[in-house]
Amino acid sequence: MSKPFSVKQSLALLQQIIDQLPDKRMVAPAPSAPELQNSLDVSLNSQGSDSEQLMCAAKAYLDYNPDVSQVAFFKLLYSGLNTPALLGDWVTSLSNATMHTYQVSPVATLMELELIKQWNSLVGFKQGDGVMVSGGSQANLIAMLLARHKCCPDAKTKGLQGQTLVAFVSDQAHYSSLKAANVLGIGSDNLIAVSSDDQGRLDPECLETAIQAALARGHTPFFIGLTAGTTVIGAYDPIEPCSLIAKKHDLWLHIDGAWGAPVLFSQTHRHLLAQSQLADSVTWDAHKLMNVPVTAAVILVKQAGLLRQACTGGGGEYLFHSDENEVYNLGERSIQCGRRADALKVWMSWKSLGSQGFSDKIDNLFDCKTHCVEQIESAPELVMLAPAVYLNVLFRYQPSTELSEQQLKQLNIAICKKLKVQGTYIDYAQYKGRTGIRLILANSLCQRSDIDDMLQACISAGNEIYAQADG
Ligand SMILES: Cc1ncc(COP(=O)(O)O)c(C=O)c1O
After folding, report:
1. Reported pTM
2. Distance of CA 463 from the midpoint of ligand 1 (Å)
3. Which CATH number does 87-350 carry?
4. Which of 258, 301, 463 is nearest to 379 (CA)?
5. Residue 58 Cα, ligand 1 centroid: separation in angstroms?
6. Residues 205-219: pLDDT tens digits?
7. Where are the chain's structural domains?
8. I want to staple 85 with a disulfide (CB 3.0 to 4.6 A). Which of 8, 233, 292, 417 is the partner?
9. 177-228: pLDDT as tens digits
10. Of 259, 273, 295, 392, which is best to mutate to test ligand 1, by the most ligand atoms within 8 angstroms of its C-beta?
11. Would you say 200 and 392 are in contact if contact means Cβ atoms under 8 Å apart?
């Protein structure tokens, strides 16, 4: 039976784990789930184990997890290591604070309020409020909840009572709005995917047509969800024309900036999200471009007080006491009871880097993006599949115009697989029926030379695979 160890002993074990980390871990460890299951014992038993076994498990855990801190991890919307945030994450676990009441999270509450103030100021919500959430998906869910509350306040207590509410997003929106429509009783069939234009942006004319069609069916439009930085190609939906449509029909206007909102830090590139203040709510993930360890995200709301109205209910008998700190109890703005104090790690990293640090990082990544697009456009074997206005680059290896879409798809999937084994983790994605390689630039350490290496690796792998298939 193991003895519980002290915080200091636990810290010593962590130190050992860090000391034993190899200089370079695998960016994309290869075992399949069945292979890993066969080689690793994750069983739990009635008898406890000693710290030696825990150390082995921790080592295996790190060995087999993709090392997302490396520049060669281009696969997802996060990459890199934000050490002040990591420190904040460790301290958060040490405190085990939970964010429902000020009493049990005093400093984290003040930090969360400061973050919300800063985020609102970047977005342009002068009197806004907000609350931190478990991720962009929950933020989008809360936005839809607020829209439902604004449109049908009785739905909170009585349900939808036979009304058909209809929400609108672009056909490039993240799948979390589908989940939100499901969870909120809207029904995923009542989430309309409005066509996007050739740049992947929601088309306002199609939006107006879709709203008119819903009205003609006797349904109740209530929500428009725009995206700032779409998941596959990084497109920014047009805010101003959609805001006019939202005003005309009295609809909630939300911006999902889970990936693209941090562009507001950069004086050079914030124009992509100019007019964000026209929205009613904005989703912002700190665990994507800001590189804060997952999870860290926020829903920002222009009209202060609405979150509390829509989310509050229960808990007064034991938790939310009427005391001098009552207004600081963030739990009443949230759909969660226990909520991790994610504020500290975001605050620590913002304090350490300053807003300028995030701005510099974003400007450097834009420079890498521009370089990447130039290189792709000058390489005869590579083709861009979509405009790259943000930090996503969707391209493919296309050695011949003779190949069918299916052949090109297989070829580019094979390139991703080959690169993974070689230590570059990129993924493939589909956009408007064409499949290519989706490169995500999120790691502050990325340099032009990393882009050159990655593209060269794609071309070499492509040439090899194509030659084999041809021969
Ligand atoms: C545009 C967009 N919105 C929302 C999400 C969901 O965010 P999360 O993973 O934090 O729930 C994602 C995730 O990739 C996204 O790309």
Report:
1. 0.97
2. 34
3. 3.40.640.10
4. 463
5. 28
6. 999 999 999 999 999
7. 87-350
8. 292
9. 999 999 999 999 999 999 999 999 999 999 999 999 999 999 999 999 999 9
10. 259
11. no
